[in-house]
Amino acid sequence: MAATETLLEVIDKDGDLILAVGIDEDPDEMTDREGRAPQELVAMEEDLWGEPGPSYGRTGHPNGDEISISDYDESDLTGQPRLQDLRSQEEELGRETSSSSRHYVRLLVSSTFLTHASPVFKVMLDGRFAEGQLTLSKQNPPTIALPEDDPDTVALLCKILHLIGDIYQRVTGKQLIKLAVISDKYNCSRSLVPWFRGQLHQFTIPATGIFDQVALDRREMSLEQVILISYLIDDNEMFAKSTETYYREKSREQIQISLKLVVDGWIQSDLVATIQNWQDYFLDRAAQIGGDVLESVVKQMNMADHEGSSYDKSSSSFALCPGHAQRLGALSAVLTLRGLWPNSNRCNKSVSGMMREWEDVGAINFHDDRTPMPVRGGTWGPCMCADRLNINTELELRIIRLEFDLRGGICLPCFKRKGRVETPAECPNMITHKLWPHCVLNAENGLGKNGSG
């Protein structure tokens, strides 16, 4: 389709600038009259799905020469029918494109919206670059070419910046990542954070804030994509919740394979190692619950004389209360059967899976009341143990504590500053912790410490 025949998509009916995004399908009609692409931008690597990624270096005139508005008259600059005729087509305002793979689109936008939201566009249009020499006009708006960008993604970006469209419109994970990449390229992520949160909060569980993987699957999204998106848009809350969900729900093997596949080349490589380290830390904590409970229970017990006389613990005549012995045996058997001892193999276990197993163990009634035992004369009487064992109480307290410590996830500013953390270490006292006190990197001698103070 020729450039002059390409239908204009009106984002702002009072717009004073046209963005020509992508490559026109008709090479014979391609000229350099549509200006230059963004300059001096950060180079990106290969696209996430194996397609050539955008090269954000300086591009423009085929000969590499600077171009000026004076080189062309107004009709050459627009390369399109008179805008007054196109503006009468009200149905074009905010029009959703049926095609999901357009190669080229021309967008009528407001330079004011773009420059306020994007420092990159502000620099481009301030006069120091070729684009800045263009005369912005509502009657005959000039055109800036963005040949390396995805048309549908830039159209969605412009609609969001112009407050057009539904924040809850159906968007796939791949589309969200493309939008996050383009917003990072033009440094306008901060303006898009509320929109992204509106999209991502739909998939969180209200009671906990962690992500519902079933809901994500229904929208063709993955938890790995949420982590990447929140990283690219620099959203600490979403990054913390998505990483929390990840080290809760995924096994070590899944983290090594699935997460690395998605974030490799986009996020610093330490992310996979950091999540694995903290998952190992929590798995160790969960596996230690059984040993801690047994140790606590043993400390509660007293050895009692069968005859109920002297209280010399060094005497061989002292023995464990039969009821307590049965309960300790039952707890040990349950831990062995479920593989919950500290030295059990946890390669294919997730933190949430282990927590669910502990909740099941905690629901077992271990009959903590003291049990009658044989006394002098062959009769039965109360044992002389000082207290009840409180196995269920000890389990419940430790499960609650670990569940509390699990909350939070990885703080994005901490991660960007510190990178990989091998062991719990105190995080820098950053203002973000006043809003996010449970950062797992903000721990010292255990997790759950508030780092805002």
Automatic annotation (TrEMBL):
Protein name: BTB domain-containing protein
InterPro entries per record: SKP1/BTB/POZ_sf
Residue segments, region Disordered: 23-82
Source species, domain of life: Eukaryota
